[in-house]
Amino acid sequence: MSPLPWLVSGIAAALVALGAAWFVRARRRTGVFESIEIDELPADLKKRLPVSLHPVIDPNKCMGSGACVASCPEGKILALHDGYAHLVNPEACIGHGACARECPVGAISLVFGTVERGVEIPHVTPSFETNVKGVYIAGELGGMGLIRNAVAQGVQAMEHIARRARSKNPEVLDVIIVGAGPAGLAAGLFAHERGLRYAVIDQEANIGGTIAHYPRNKIILTGTFELPGWGRIKQRELSKEELITIWKEAVERVGLVVRFGERYEDISRNGDEIVVRTSRGVLRAQHVLLAIGRRGTPRKLEAPGEELSKVAYSLSEADAWAGGKLLVVGGGDSALEAAMTLAEVPGTEVTLSYRGDTFFRAKPKNQKRFAEAVEAGRVRALVSSEVVSIAAGEVVLRQGDAEIRVQNDQVFVLIGGILPTGLLSQAGITMERKFGTR
């Protein structure tokens, strides 16, 4: 066999490699891609890796093209160092996967969890059905944090449900949708449009799920997506208020009925039917879609006085607390953002108590803004402190050996939620622990 074809192939490969190298050098010279020094890589990077869907980079494949850096709409999550891409701001990633799609050599994979920090994810089929026939899971509970993905999953699960035979018993619904966040609302709108017999329940008083608890004017990266009953949402990012307004208008336009203030408690199977017990009674259906997110039930302090009406587990209307003496408990993004939002309201005195000594779980941007607020005297930060007791006019904190009494009108406990994995396990749904799994 003539060596000519092999020679031609070798020359072509060399030209491609030279072209790629020239491209990378040219892009770096023009400053298109951010390049960092090794000492700029975060020292606590392993601590900060998210447990939800995020990218990992194979250095044996990476050619340093910078396509991943340029494609990320969230910005500065990836950066180049010494000719390779590095994950430098992982907690800002919400798993849209643009970097993996744009990598020309397939050096990026999207994974759940990390080797150090695993995450429990329900096992579902491509149609989002669990091992319990007729029970589906979509959205954040399945490890997808991006709103666009949650909406798509809710619709895809409902498409699968709509193709199945419907019950002839008028007392048995076609589907019960638990949760009125992105996945649940999209699923409900789809079900209403297709004429399914449905019920949408949510333990909150308003639509939006976890997003409804975000601070005022928080910008949310959504990506473009198609919302049943509304059409295509073209903006890639929206404020909390803009997004909830769109959802409310879509609900009103379609006529979707949501049963607010109804908490999901238990699920079981009775023959061909699925029985859902709620705080208001019992519902029966052929299918159930769980779109309850990972926030679950708010985690409590278990401190004396926590039962007082002055204690809240979310912040929605900060303006209502003008002139108030306010305590925020927690050290994550929600707590820092709430403290900074409250500090902007005229006349407030804001204190933040956190049992840790650093805010490493919060995004760097929030850490920086919060440090500036503390330095400017807008927020008082008490790190390494714990709430001892709560009374009508004050809160008692312990910081080391010292006891601190803080005059107080309202307490916001923002220390995360208890994941609903117990409810899923009781229902017989198989959970998988992912340790950096594709």
Topology record:
Layout (H helix, E strand, L loop, with lengths): L3 H26 L15 H4 L5 E4 L9 H5 L6 E4 L2 E4 L10 H5 L5 E4 L7 E4 L12 E3 L9 H16 L10 E6 L3 H12 L4 E5 L16 E3 L3 E3 L3 E3 L3 E3 H15 L3 E3 L3 E7 L2 E6 L2 E10 L6 E2 L12 E2 L12 E5 L3 H11 L5 E6 L9 H12 L3 E5 L1 E6 L3 E6 L2 E6 L2 E4 L3 E2 L2 H6 L4 E4 L4
Parallel strand pairs: 6-16, 7-8, 7-16, 8-13, 18-25, 19-20, 19-25, 20-21
Antiparallel strand pairs: 1-4, 2-3, 5-27, 9-12, 10-11, 14-15, 15-16, 17-26, 22-23, 23-24
Question: Could you characterize what this model shows?
Answer:
Helix 5 packs parallel to helix 6 (182-193), helix 6 runs parallel beside helix 7 and helix 8 packs parallel to helix 9 (364-375). This protein is globular. Helices cover 26% and strands 27% of the residues. It has helices at residues 4-29, 45-48, 67-71, 98-102, 147-162, 182-193, 240-254, 333-343, 364-375, 421-426; strands at residues 54-57, 78-81, 84-87, 108-111, 119-122, 135-137, 173-178, 198-202, 219-221, 225-227, 231-233, 237-239, 258-260, 264-270, 273-278, 281-290, 297-298, 311-312, 325-329, 349-354, 379-383, 385-390, 394-399, 402-407, 410-413, 417-418, 431-434. The model is unreliable at 14-41 (pLDDT under 50). By secondary structure, it is of the alpha/beta class. Strand 22 and strand 23 form a beta hairpin. The two termini are 42 Å apart. Strands 6, 7, 8, 13, 14, 15 and 16 form a 7-stranded mixed sheet that branches. A 5-stranded parallel sheet has the order 18-25-19-20-21. Strands 22-23-24 form a 3-stranded antiparallel sheet, with no helix packed on it. The protein has 10 helices and 27 strands.
